[in-house]
């Protein structure tokens, strides 16, 4: 009898895992508590994979030999606890897919900058002519690609939720960009639990693998003090010169890995802001470790186009630049966005707060922000933080209203920045929906 694999959640990762499981001869069942989108339902039907939606039939699920869980389902969900109490392994799609691939895995995590760095590296590897796939939190499902494509390399963006379901999976190059408080609601509001989750990216590394990490990050540096491994370490910094890894000195980026040395001027980077210096250093080190040609590394860092919904310039209206940074769902992301602004800012902020400490932004807000538009169902915490600090602070309960108010407050040669520092689920389906609505309303002005 074929082993039974149950997939919980029928989004990109779940359906991908189902396709791979079927290709490997498992008895596959997919269960989604919500409604499955037409795109994925059609795929399940075409592959003749058994599925249900709108419910979880426990008798069918608890008969599994192993369960692949969507990263969106919390580990503390009653069904997951029941599976674990019965000794049924619960893993992530990445863990499952990794068993069936011999490709080199370049894995990126961090509280911020993951998507930019992942896409930057994918761009670099493609430019270098490598046969590379893009997966994890971006691109297509890793499992689906492993089932039907034949890539030699994968660049993977990994969230803490994906890492939590990974046990035997091994990165060849692991990149840890930064750790700041985020998703603490999923980690018992204990920062160390979240830190431990991020550090799972280095589990199973061997001495022939590379760990690329930001040594300016205090949390990462503290963790590294207790870490003893033979893995190759490549730190990066914008504050100090290093013996190996990557650093910024004055305006020059230098990467020095295993005698592989590259320099380039900061002004030649395609993306502005100090956070993108970090992202570029991490990408450049990974490219060097892979032995990519120096000119391909330099070119890719200077012509990379950036990420939708991340400091995305929308349009200028009456001399006012509108910028969509809807992907900024935590304080740290918004800090980087404000840090990179050079003109006075009208800041659109708000949504579902994940335990934000807005005081971190006070110094930047004092210098850069002339007005705030609070976009959310409950804006009390934002008012408490910024009333009296900023001359104009108003409320909006829709994107249309937020854009109109910001347009009224801003003047020529100023910026309207949507950088919410919060999740989107109070008024929008997702951060993409929030960013798309922003762009649409700006174009309607």
Automatic annotation (TrEMBL):
GO terms for biological process, alphabetical: cell division; cell wall organization; peptidoglycan biosynthetic process; regulation of cell shape
Domain Mur ligase C-terminal: from-to ranges: 309-422
Protein name: UDP-N-acetylmuramoylalanine--D-glutamate ligase
Pfam families: Mur_ligase_C (PF02875), Mur_ligase_M (PF08245), MurD-like_N (PF21799)
Keywords: ATP-binding, Cell cycle, Cell division, Cell shape, Cell wall biogenesis/degradation, Cytoplasm, Ligase, Nucleotide-binding, Peptidoglycan synthesis
Known catalytic reactions: UDP-N-acetyl-alpha-D-muramoyl-L-alanine + D-glutamate + ATP = UDP-N-acetyl-alpha-D-muramoyl-L-alanyl-D-glutamate + ADP + phosphate + H(+)
Coiled coil: none
Signal peptide (residue range): none
Function: Cell wall formation. Catalyzes the addition of glutamate to the nucleotide precursor UDP-N-acetylmuramoyl-L-alanine (UMA).
Any one GO molecular function term: UDP-N-acetylmuramoylalanine-D-glutamate ligase activity
Pathway(s) the chain acts in: Cell wall biogenesis; peptidoglycan biosynthesis
EC number: 6.3.2.9
Principal EC category: ligase
Residues annotated as binding ATP: 110-116
Protein family according to the UniProt entry: Belongs to the MurCDEF family.
Residues of the Mur ligase central domain: 108-285
HAMAP family: MurD
């Amino acid at each position: 009898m074929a082993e039974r694999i149950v997939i919980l959640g029928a989004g990109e990762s779940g359906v991908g895992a189902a396709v791979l499981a079927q290709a490997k001869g498992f008895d596959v069942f997919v269960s989604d508590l919500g409604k499955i989108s037409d795109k994925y339902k059609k795929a399940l039907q075409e592959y003749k994979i058994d599925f249900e939606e709108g419910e979880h039939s426990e008798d069918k699920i608890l008969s599994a030999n192993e369960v692949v869980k969507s990263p969106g389902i919390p580990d503390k969900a009653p069904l997951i606890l029941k599976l674990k109490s019965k000794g049924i392994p619960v893993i992530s799609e990445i863990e499952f897919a990794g068993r069936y691939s011999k490709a080199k895995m370049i894995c990126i995590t961090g509280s911020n900058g993951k998507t930019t760095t992942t896409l930057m590296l994918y761009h670099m590897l493609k430019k270098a002519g490598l046969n590379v796939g893009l997966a994890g939190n971006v691109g297509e499902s890793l499992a689906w690609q492993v089932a039907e494509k034949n890539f030699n390399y994968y660049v993977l963006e990994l969230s803490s939720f994906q890492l939590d379901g990974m046990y035997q999976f091994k990165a060849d190059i692991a990149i840890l960009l930064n750790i700041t408080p985020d998703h603490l609601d999923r980690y018992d509001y204990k920062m160390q639990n979240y830190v431990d989750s991020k550090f799972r990216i280095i589990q199973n590394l061997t001495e022939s693998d590379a760990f690329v990490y930001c040594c300016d990050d205090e949390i990462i540096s503290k963790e590294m003090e207790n870490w003893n491994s033979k893995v190759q370490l490549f730190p990066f910094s914008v504050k100090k010169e290093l013996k190996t890894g990557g650093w910024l000195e004055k305006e020059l980026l230098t990467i020095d890995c295993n005698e592989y040395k590259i320099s380039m001027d900061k002004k030649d980077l395609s993306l502005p802001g100090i956070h993108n210096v970090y992202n570029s250093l991490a990408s450049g080190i990974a490219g060097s470790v892979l032995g990519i040609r120096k000119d391909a590394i330099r070119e890719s860092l200077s012509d990379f186009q950036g990420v939708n919904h991340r400091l995305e310039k929308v349009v200028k209206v009456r001399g006012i630049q509108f910028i969509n940074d809807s992907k900024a769902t935590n304080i740290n992301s918004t800090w980087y966005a404000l840090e990179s602004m050079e003109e006075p800012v009208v800041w659109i902020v708000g949504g579902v707060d994940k335990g934000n400490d807005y005081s971190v932004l006070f110094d930047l807000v004092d210098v850069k922000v002339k007005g705030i538009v609070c976009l959310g169902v409950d804006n009390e915490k934002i008012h408490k933080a910024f009333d009296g600090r900023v001359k104009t602070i108003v409320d909006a309960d829709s994107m249309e209203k937020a854009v109109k108010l910001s347009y009224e407050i801003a003047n020529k040669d100023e910026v309207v920045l949507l950088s919410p520092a919060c999740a989107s689920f109070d008024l929008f389906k997702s951060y993409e929906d929030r960013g798309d609505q922003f762009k649409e309303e700006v174009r309607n002005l």
